[in-house]
Amino acid sequence: MLALLEILQTGGLHTVGALAARLQVDERTVRRYIGHLVDLDIPVRSERGRYGGYRLALGFRMPPLMLTDDEAVAVLLGLVAGRRTGLAGPSPVASEAASAKLRRVLPAVLGRRVDDVLRAAEFADSSSVIALVPTDVLLTVAGAVRRRRQVSIIYTGGDGRRTERTLHPYGLVFRSGRWYVTGHDSSSGETRLFRLDRISETRSLDGTFEVPDTFDATQAVLTGLARMPYRHEIALRVRESVEEIRARLPAVVIASAEPGPDPDWTTVRIHAQRLDWIPGVLAGLGVPFVIDRPDELRGLVRSLAADLSAAAGDR
User: Fold this and answer.
1) Main-chain phi, psi angles of 187, to 5 degrees
2) Strands (DSSP E) found in the chain
3) Taking 50 as the threshold, does the pLDDT of residue 296 lie above it?
4) Model-level pTM?
5) What does the pLDDT look like over 67-82, one tens digit per residue?
6) 177: nearest Cα among 81, 83, 80, 86
7) pLDDT band at 60, cuts 50/70/90?
8) CA angle 204, 155, 85 (to 5 degrees)
9) pLDDT tens, residue by residue, 243-270
10) Burial code of 43-59, b = ≥16 C-beta within 10 A, e = fewer?
11) What is the Cα–Cα distance from 191 to 181, expressed in whole angstroms?
12) Residue 58 in 3-state DSSP?
């Protein structure tokens, strides 16, 4: 009966003859198994006629899952990795509970091997900031993105003000423990970036929209983050092309990169909360650069140069 359920969960319509052949039983036994599944409130639907058979309908609850050992390990590791990196969905608690349930039903030997992986593995991309998003907000926004439907949101800005906005959501992006949605904002008439954890209410609206052909949601989010107010605004000139600079510097830190008066030099602006990591990035470019501001950055670059020179000197 469980093998029959596993076949039905693959989707589509299955004839009695095909099911009997796969299970190596007679058709009468198949019908009896189907009856047992229906008695358990599993939504099996029958279709009569020459090409009739059975299919599993979408029920109000999830039917039992049949997973192979490899599939169970893949799901479990995915849940753990998602929780540790911040990509655990709306509720890390739900992810942890699902992991515990799955871990309890693994065979003992396989469970011990999975534990070895979990204890030995480290996640270099783990996020120190994990912003929880209500389930209905995430699902509503994702559905609006997929179906290109307008959505009404109640948004709390960084200054604490709550506003109601109508959004044409172009894309949904996850970065560093947070979900972002980017799209056309009716209040400002511009393409804006919103954090989902700051959205308290969502409502799908009538009406559809078209996403610009060249729009890249990930790039829009990275650019939007780079343009947000930061403690330090850095201006410098780099003797390299715009394309090469964008390829070498993280997109999230570049506020702008434009050709300067001299065609061999590019004017670059960077936003940062701290300056201590900037000298190493500039040194890693491997090309000449000139710092226009701030003066504090010049001192940090000189200090790095002195440290490197001392480290490379004779003992």
Assistant:
1) -70, -40
2) 44-47, 53-56, 149-156, 162-175, 178-185, 190-195, 199-208, 232-238, 254-259, 266-272, 289-293
3) yes
4) 0.53
5) 777 787 788 878 877 7
6) 86
7) very low
8) 90
9) 888 888 776 677 788 888 888 899 998 8
10) ebeeeeeeeebbebeee
11) 10
12) coil
pLDDT for 266 equals 92
Contact status, residue 268 vs residue 223, Cβ threshold 8 Å:
no
Angle between helices 16-23 and 27-39 (to 10 degrees): 100
ω into 263 cis (within 30 of 0): no
Query: Which residue bears the tokens 């992991």?
Result: 99
Going 204 to 208 to 212 to 216, the CA torsion angle's sign is positive
* Residues pairing with 254 in the sheet: 270
Say if CB 43 and CB 10 are below 8 A apart.
Answer: no
Phi, psi of 297 (to 5 degrees): -70, -35
CA atoms within 13 A on the CB side of 218: 5
Which pair of structure tokens corresponds to residue 240?
């390299």
Among 26, 19, 16, 18, which Cα is nearest to 3's? 19
Q: How confident is the model at residue 58 (pLDDT cuts 50, 70, 90)?
A: low
